[in-house]
Amino acid sequence: FSRLKESLTKTRKNFVEKIETLVTRRRAIDEGFYEELEEILIGADIGINTAVEIVENLRAEVKKRKIDDVETLKEVLKELICNILGEGGASTALNINEDGLTVILVVGVNGVGKTTTIGKLAYYFKEELGKKVLLAAGDTFRAAAIDQLEIWSNRVGVEMIKHKEGADPAAVAYDAIQAARARRSDVLIVDTAGRLHTKSNLMDELKKIKRVINKDMPEAPQEILLVLDATTGQNAVSQAKLFGEAADVTGIALTKLDGTAKGGVVISIKNALKIPVKLIGIGEGIEDLRPFEPEVFAEALFP
Ligand code: GDP
Hints:
Elements: H1 2-7, H2 9-14, H3 16-25, H4 31-43, H5 48-64, H6 70-85, E1 102-107, H7 114-128, E2 133-136, H8 143-156, E3 159-161, H9 169-182, E4 187-191, H10 199-216, E5 223-229, H11 234-246, E6 251-255, H12 265-273, E7 277-281, E8 289-291, H13 294-301
Parallel strand pairs: 1-4, 1-5, 2-3, 2-4, 5-6, 6-7
Antiparallel strand pairs: 7-8
This protein binds guanosine-5'-diphosphate.
Guanosine-5'-diphosphate is lined by residues 110-116, 148, 255-256, 258-259, 281-284, 288.
């Protein structure tokens, strides 16, 4: 927890501390207060719509509960944000097939931390959950992507299926499924090329991979994880929208939450897209991937 809290330091400074300053400076809950609060929320990459919604709900609560002191107001604000993060109690846990193979397809544009996330995830499954993991180098578009993933597979100590650069990603997925079956793997993590130059292109490629996987496993993939970079703020939200339209994304892995002040983007993604954030990256190390737990996150944000 302290590691998570530490990684959110910049976000907390940019967001919670600004709210605290506002609360102490403006003693009255007036129009000016709400305006400034909205600005802080937007500045914290929560997204304009979500910021407006939070302020509106706050107004309503203040009226309903006849709140006139800023301390209570701060508590209500924390509650509202916690509610958004945990909304609907939608599960943020990874969907894992307990008595058979689990296939996880990983999508996202280059540079967001896709390879690193796959490596950390493989480590998490292997070391924390004691699973047998296989990787598939499905990003055949760049030779570097295959090499990078191989470095991670060696580091974690899991096997990897690869073809040559330029090979058909669906063929890699097919071989990987066969290999996972033959080796009795628990989890197969399939990397994909995150080219977004056209949506239909991406859609076709992912569909083909899915079709191949479904030949053997109609219920797979159990997860299609989209990797997003928190440091890109609202850009991450736009990417999520595009990918969400091109693939049935089941969860988001949000990377680089450490060292960014834009951690509010978690709230934005949660509220705008209704796709649950399932994993968060809080550093470059092999252990720096965490399951996303809304309450724990909110607690780290508002200590
Ligand atoms: P890819 O092109 O999407 O596969 O991106 P990479 O996995 O190669 O990562 C790009 C850079 O982001 C690398 O330098 C990683 O170490 C770094 N990175 C990935 N995840 C995190 C994270 O959670 N925190 C930090 N600080 N850096 C990260």
